[in-house]
Amino acid sequence: MPNHYHLVLEQNTDNGIPKYMQKLSTAFTQYFNHIYNMTGSLFQGSYRAVRVKTDEQLYQLILYVLRNPLEAGLVDVKNVI
């Protein structure tokens, strides 16, 4: 996706995902700004998270993540299979 990304993560420690997301966002922003000689933030607002409580929710989430580029017309269906 050109303007966002999706991650499916499992939290193993208290506040593990928020800490990881903060480190990931900071590291990527620093890298991007260094490479392109820019300053400032890259992302609007904070990340959004959805707690998955059932296997069915996990299944639907993974389908959504995998189909998102297809639905956005970024991938030619013929090249997927």
Q: From the alpha carbons, calculate the radius of gyration and give it in angstroms.
A: 16 Å
Helix content: 40-55%
Rough outline: flat
If you average the pLDDT, what whole number results?
Answer: 91
Strand content: under 5%
Number of strands: 0
N- and C-termini, Cα separation: 19 Å
Major sheet description: none
Low-pLDDT segments: none
Q: Which structural category fits the helices and strands?
A: mainly alpha
- How many helices? 2
Order of helices and strands: HH
Structural features, described:
With 81 residues, the protein is mainly α. The protein has helices at residues 16-35, 55-71. The chain is flat and about 40 Å long. The mean pLDDT is 91.
Write out key terms for the chains shown.
about 0% strand; single chain; mainly alpha; 2 helices; about 45% helix; about 80 residues
Annotate the secondary structure layout.
Layout: H1 16-35, H2 55-71
Compact description:
The protein is an all-alpha fold. The chain has helices at 16-35, 55-71.
